[in-house]
Structure formats: structure tokens, C-alpha cells
Protein 1
Amino acid sequence: MKTKTRLLALPLLGLLGATLAFNVSTAHAATINVPGDQPTIQAAVAAANPGDTIVVAPGTYSVSLANINKPLTLLGAQVGVDARSGRPGAMESIIAGSGFGTFFLAADNITFDGFTFTNLKGRELNSTSTANANNFTMRNCILQGSSIDPGYNTGAIQFEGDVGRTADGLLFEQNLFTADKGELFLMERGMDNGTIQNNTFHGDTVSFGPFGNRTGWVIQSNEFNGDVPGHGPYWGFGFNANLGDVIIQNNTVSKMSVGFGQISVVGGLITGNTFDDNSFAAFQLWGGEFGTVVSANVTIQNNTINYNGTACTGFADAAHGIRLRTGLDASTIHLHENNFMNLGVGTCGQAWAIRQNGSNTADAECNWWGTTDPTVIATMFGQGAVDFTPWLLSPAPNGICASNQKDCQAAVEQQEKDFNDQQKADKKAFDATHPTPDQRKTFDNQQKADKNAFQQQYKAEEMQCKQLPKK
């Protein structure tokens, strides 16, 4: 009997283990409703197991010292709904700010989606010194407040600079930031592979620091509007940070103080952005001043920069296109296929498309400067050397890049060849679809219209070529 008892005990233990494993795995998938299951958000956080989801009903919630020390997903009433419109009239889950430590971020994989944060203060969401905060996600949230930290010493979302602690994989998307008198992010610790995309920033400062090594960042498809209610234009500020090999693309930046900001970029790409009427510059690249990282090997292409939008009366208030700051090697900064358009506001003669304070010569060939007159183009750069030859004869992306008649005519003829080759390829692909007679007629008419438009462009470019020097 003893032997039989021992034999029977083994499957019972196995069954018990399986039951325990089942309970643990199902606990990870639990949903906690506030206030249905727990009366407050902090009570739900305390009761949750790693991997749980907390669903918060519409209403206003006071939260203080909610320590998120496990992976959690917190969903507000507007989960999945883009916040950039402001969601007027929507039923919101509102978290009323209480200042330092409303939420402590003490774990990886924490997500907020669909909330409105009001009365934001410094360190409202604050990482702790004892844990990483990797893969922090905030999406579809509205962030409001009249006074985050007027001293600009803290951020509403702060990742402290603890040695060895990281906050990699930040994702911030489809949010609306309107908070004032302070910065949204203070990024002190190691933070790689962050993504900031599809947001509207219509408040004070986006981010400060740090200036250590950083890699893998993408900042794209955001709207930065510095015309902040209560202050007027040129109040909002972008970034003051080392962004490493960042990709900054397809953003709209208008009426900001220093445009996108003062940034260190090493091996990065700035492309497809529109900078319109910003004070001081569209952006500035740091060159090592004040302990910053020296910018190098930066590609700046396919951007449109309308500069000198502020009323310029002298050098101190001149708004430039781009500033390359002291300490960087300008020959490693490559600017091509950009459109520089001076808005011409004010009387200052020292507003430049490129203010070049670095060493050596900036590589700025094949840009559109608003004119084809080289004597005028040469006046658009201040303080340091800029190689602007050859230049575009019309705005990018379709402008021809040339500085003499021979090169210009060759470029125009190559453009014509490329156009004809593309039309032939398009026709071949269309024929392969076995179109109906009506479809073929529509296609042929469109190709003829495209051809006529191209011919007009071709003739205009030929005329431009003739105005250039022969050699």
C-alpha cells in the first residue's frame, strides 16, 4: 500500500503543478475595471499582476504615488482614439495631476492609452532609481497644464539619470501636448530606439537632455506649433538633446523658438520636413559647446525651410535657415535638394540661409535658394564657408542642379530621357492588364496631359540653362 500510495502521489503532484501553472497564466491576462473592480487607479495598480490590463471608466481621478512596478497596460475611455484633434465633447478618463510621483515608472512594458492628463506638474510620471523603464508607451493621450515647472528643472515625464538604468524603446504617438511653462520630457538616463511620431506639440518645451551616447531614434510626422495661447508665436521649444543617429522626417515645424531645437546629431538623417517662420533658425546643430556632443556626418535633404519670419532689426534677433554651431566640422554636414525661402520680414541684413560657425566648408550643393543668380546666392551665408555650387534652377524635388550651360543642358536632356522611359514602362504595365477601350482612352489622355506638362517644364528649364555661364 505504501508503494501504491507513492505511485499515486506523483500524478497528483503533476496535476497540482498543472493547475498552478494554469492559474498563473490566466492571472497574467486579467482585466481590472476602475471603479467596477477597484475604487481607484492606484488600488488597481497595487492589486494587478504582471501583464494585467486596467480599464478606467470616464470620470476624473486623483492619483498619487501609484507605483507601477510590473508590466501593465492602462486604458482610458478614449483608447485607440487619436488625441490630436483634442476630442471635443468626448467622454474622457481624466487624471488630475498631483505633482511629483503621480505615477512611478518602475518596470518595463508600461502603457497608457486614451487618457487626458490635466494640471501636469514636474515628474508627474517619474522613473525610479531602482528599475529600468524600457518600452514605455503613451498613445492617444491629451496632456494639459498651465505650469509644469517654470524653472525647467524637471519634466512632466521624467526618466532620471541613474547609472546603468535604461528607458529604451520609448513610443509616444498620436498625443496632443498643450501644457505650458515647463518641459514634457526630461530624458536623463540611457534611452535608445525611441520613437516620437504622429503627435501635435502645441505647448512649451518638448524635451531636454541628455548629451550622452544615443542611437536608433525616429521622430516623424509630428506637428510642432509654437504659437501658444497666452504667449503668441515663438514660444514653443523643441529638443535640446543628443539624438545620435536619429531620423527626423516629415515633420511640420512652425513659429517655434529655435524651430526643431538645438540638437546633436551623429550619422543621422533630417529629411522631408517643413520649417516655416521659426525664430533664430529651423534648427541648430551642436558642435561641442556647453558639453554637447559634436554633430557629424549628418544628411539634410528634401526639406523646405522658410526662414527670417520674425521681424528682424539686427543680428541679435536674426532668424536664419540652419545654424551650424562652433566646434563641428562643416564638411561632414551634407545639405542637398532643400528649398531655402526667405520670408523677408524686417530690415536685418544678417539673416542667412545657413549661419556657418563650424570649421571647413559646409557641403550645400544642389539646393534651391529662391533665385538662380549666383551673386545673390553668395550673400545668403554668414560667418563661415559654404559650397553652394552647383545649385537648383527651380524648387526641389524636380529642379535641375547645374551652374553652367553645358551641365544644365545635359541634365535637362537626361530628365527628358527619364520621363520618356517612365512613360513607356507605364504603358507596358498598363497593356499587360488587358484594359477595356474606355480604360485605354483614359490612360492615353492622361499620358498626353503629362507629356504636355513636361514639355512646358522642359522649355522653361532650357531657358534657365541659357541664362547660366557657358562654363
Protein 2
Amino acid sequence: MKKVFLVLVIIGFSLLIGIRPGMAENVGNEVCPVTGEKIVENAKATYEHEGKIYNFCCPMCIDDFKNNPEKYVEKVEKEQVSY
């Protein structure tokens, strides 16, 4: 019984401070890191990489991202800084 209580306390605390196991963070990029095109919300494609969700203008761009994620993550980070 004490173990169950302890687990519930740990889960509750982690939710309180924002730790959500298995929950990826949407980086919210508005420009496709592969093509540089503005992302249309109702037509976008998304891909999760290392706990973050990246937005793309189309599903084909995800393949390019997978081949060199560091290159495109850097582009997204630069976009985020410029806002």
C-alpha cells in the first residue's frame, strides 16, 4: 500500500512540474525546415524527433529531415530565435 501511494505521489509531482513521460513537445515552427515554405496549418505534416514534434509543409520533407536531422533542427532553432 505504501508503494502505491509513493508511486502516485511521484506521478502527481511530475505532472505538477510539467514532466509528462511519453509526451513530445511541439516546437511550433511555422516554416518548413526543408523547403523554407510557410506551413499551412490544415495541410501540414509532423514528425517526432528526440521528444520534439517538428512541422513540415508536406510528408515528403520528413524523409529529407530523417536523412540529416541535425541540419534541419538547427534551421528550426534559428527560426525560433528570430521571433
Protein 3
Amino acid sequence: MQSLCPNKEVCGSCSWSHIPYEKQLQQKVNEINFSFKLHKLDLQLKEILPSPKTSHYRNRMDFVIDFEGRVGLRQKGKWWRVIDNHTCFISDEKIEELFHIVRDWAQNAGLTFFDRKYHHGLLRYAVIRTTTTGESMITIVTSQPKDDSENEQLTKALSNLSKLVTRNSILATLIHSINKTTSDVSHGGEVHIILGKGYIIEEINGYKYKITPNAFFQTNSHAAKLLMDTVLEFAETAIRLPRFARNDKSTNPSDTATSSRGENQRNDLPETLQLSNSPSPQHSNTTTLQPTTPITILDLYSGSGFFTIPLADKFNANTIGVEIVKDAIEDAKENNKLNNTNATFIAMPSEDYDWSELNPNLVILDPPRSGLRKTALSQLVTLQPDNLIYVSCNFKNFSRDMQTLQKIYEVKKMRGIDMFPHTPHVELVTLLTKKNREIPRIC
């Protein structure tokens, strides 16, 4: 199979693009199961849900601006070398359109380019993000201007870029982000809005999410729907809730049939888990839970509330999200209002949050690619909540963490979601319950 990328041999963004997509999925299953075997885990992944889109699916691209003014993606294994005028066929079409505008501007604005070896120069990155709702955000990351003259020149250049964007009738917001350190990162600590409202709104399964420049969001909005559905499905199982009518804006891949609110109400639920017929104002087709015994869900590494908000809405639970990035927590609080939910969000490292008195029914774990820190793993071993849902973007580190968790927990459900077609990466969602704790089979 021929790759769709013209620079595949030098760019590492789509290293599997030469492999037919069905074979990519099977290879990911094989590699995950090999990792389990390598770590002596008695586990086997059986399914990976394919991404609804396999090209132009990515909603964020961080384009590098090098010291000679090349704008594009880095060469594979060479942090100092940029492939000029190279976008990527996995990025959203709107990103590619905006890239050419930004590249032309950067190379003709008369500004200096950042030298990553000697740490001088202005222009560093152009980060372009889009949403399925048609909004776009361009973030120009620069160094701190060295004097008033350079600052004035930069201000004028950014104003010209905003005019270029407006002239092309693009619904976009333009951000200037200043990185005052020598760290080679695509974000800065100081943010200025040049054009628009300073954020974009994405909608997943009827839930709205505000995305600001420094906040993380799932990079494949199309497959993010499957990820959300999977976590909600596993959460139902975890809290002993029989399957109920879902929001008709969200179709669970493993559900054969769902109905609109109220049609499949169950009268045989446990006394503490009864469904409400009262729709929430924001999600009129969503079945919620009205427990007589409160349910508590703790979402660690919660980001801007991607899981926290639908969990709070679906289960009418005491839902708490903990996240180290303050900007993400501010977004989460806004998203709470946008979706008329009642979650609580706390800005602090998940490892430092003391939940020893919380006694949650369910803990959601969505750590960074490095996996759980030892302190977080130690908390889980000490406090031993009944149920965990571990969302991992690095199955090798998940396997490492499972060597500890398997002493206390057993795997009830596991599913992969291909959030990253044409790459070796995959999202893995696993429901773990304490051993010797029975969960009824749900049909």
C-alpha cells in the first residue's frame, strides 16, 4: 500500500500509513497483547474500535518555525530540522488551509526566527486547532520581545495576520502566546487575544467543551465520541446499573438498541439506583440517575472535564475532577456551566489530592503517556476503591501499572479505541473491580 504522505520517509507523524488500515488495527491488538505477555499479565485484548475517520481526523497540529524560517513538521529523529511547507494528511482540512496562510505570513513578516541552539529570535511555533463545529484557533508562540522596537514590530505583524485570517472569511480566533523560557515547548505562560473570543467550542455527543490555548483536548474529535461512550458504558457496569436508554445523540458501539428518554425504564433496579424521567434542561434526551444513596465518582487527571461532565450528567453523581493544569480547570468550570452539570473541579496534582475520606464508588484514571506516578499508584493500593476505569494512551505503561494493580483488581472489561490512525498509538480503556466483588452480568 502506498502512503498518502509525500514525505513519509523523513516525517514520523504517520509512520504506519503504508499499512492497510485493517492490518493496522490487528497489529495494535497484537502489540498490546504482546505487552501483556511480556509483563506476565493474564490479559487479552479482543477488540479495537476503528476511528470513524482515518484521514484528516486530527484537530490540532503544532507546526515548528525553525531558525531559518522553515515552517512545518520536524524530520523524524532530528529535532533541529523542519520539513518546510509540510502539513499532514491526518490533520483536519481546515488546519491545512490555515497553515498556508500562517506560513506565508511568518516568512514575510520581517520577524526573527527562534534559534533552538543559541536561544534567540522571536517566532517559535504556530499551533492550529479546529473543531467539528467549524471553529478554529491559531496560536503564534514567540519569545519575549527583547525591546520596545521589536515588540512594536511584532504587534504590527500579528495585526496583519488577523487581517489575513479575516480576509479569508475564516471563523477563527488568533492568540499570541509568549514563552519566556528556553524550553522548546509549543505554549507560553503569557497569552494575549489578538482576534476573536480567545477560545473555541467543541461538541461531543451533545456536550459542549470550551478549549483555550493551553488546555488539552482529545485530538480526534470523531473517535472521542467512542471513547466517551465506552467510559460511560463501563461506568454503568461498575456501579451495578443495568443498561438504560442513552442520549440519542450518542450511540454506544456495543448497544444493539437504545430508545429515547423514558421508553425503556426499568422497575427492577436496586432501590438505590432508580432512573429519573425528568430531563435536564441542557440534555433533553439524556436519562439520568436519581439515587437514594449518593454515588461518588472521582476523575483524576480530569483535564477540562471531558469525562467528568457526562458522568455527572448521566449518573447524577457527586463527581469530582482533579487536574494539575489551572487553565484546564478554569475551562472545566466553564464547561460545567455550559452543560448545566454540577461537578466539582480542583486545580492540583492528582497525586497530591487527598481522597482518603471520599470513599468513591468509581475512580477514573486518565494519566499522561508516562502512566501513573508511584505516589498515585500507592494511593490506589492503600485506599482500594471498589472500581477503577483506567484510560491509557500508552499500553506499555498501563501494563507496568497493572503488575501492581492486578494484586487487588481483576479486569472486567477492556476495549481499545483507535484515536490515532496511521500511527502505532491507541487508547486503551479498562474496567477493574476489586477481587471477590461480584458484578451482575448485564445483557
